[in-house]
Amino acid sequence: MENNSEKSAVNAAQFSAYPTVSQLNVEKSKQEYLEMFWTDQRREMENVIDFKSNLLLPPNRIKKIMKTDKDVRMIAAESPVLLAKACELFIQELTLRSWLNAQENHRRILKKDDVTDVIMQTDNLDFLVDDATHDGSTPSVVPFNVAGGSNGQNGSDV
């Protein structure tokens, strides 16, 4: 009897290391959504004549942030526009990935944990992970300073 329970425990441990069919379908679906997102963005950018008029983030504000660096003297007119578009795309992709994570967890409300999970799971978002933990605990996501946020700071510093 003991051998059978040991074998079933070993089998369960072996199968838990492999993704299930439903997990594979979820990953495939996520990848399809991301591919559609980038295809739509590429098509939109190819059809836009004036990027500056179609931005959600104000290039003047980005230029002001860029000038806070003491080493920056002159900024080309295209730089804040390009950086605004890159930031916009970054925010949209992070939001899409977080939304897919919320749907995977059978929720219709996006939570901070969804964003954190996506950052921890996505390799090219490693720069947002604070791995400077001194107590040996799991690395956490770098806190964002947002106006009206709950981290005790206001966003007016930038």
UniProtKB/TrEMBL annotation:
Keywords: DNA-binding, Nucleus, Transcription, Transcription regulation. It is found in: Nucleus. It holds the Pfam family CBFD_NFYB_HMF. SUPFAM superfamilies: Histone-fold (SSF47113). The keyword Electron transport does not apply. Signal peptide: none annotated. Transmembrane segments: none annotated. The keyword Transcription regulation applies. It comes from the Eukaryota. Residues 57-116 form the Transcription factor CBF/NF-Y/archaeal histone domain. InterPro entries: CBFA_NFYB_domain, Histone-fold, Transcr_DNA_Rep_Reg. Belongs to the NFYC/HAP5 subunit family. This is Transcription factor CBF/NF-Y/archaeal histone domain-containing protein. The lineage of its organism: Eukaryota, Viridiplantae, Streptophyta, Embryophyta, Tracheophyta.
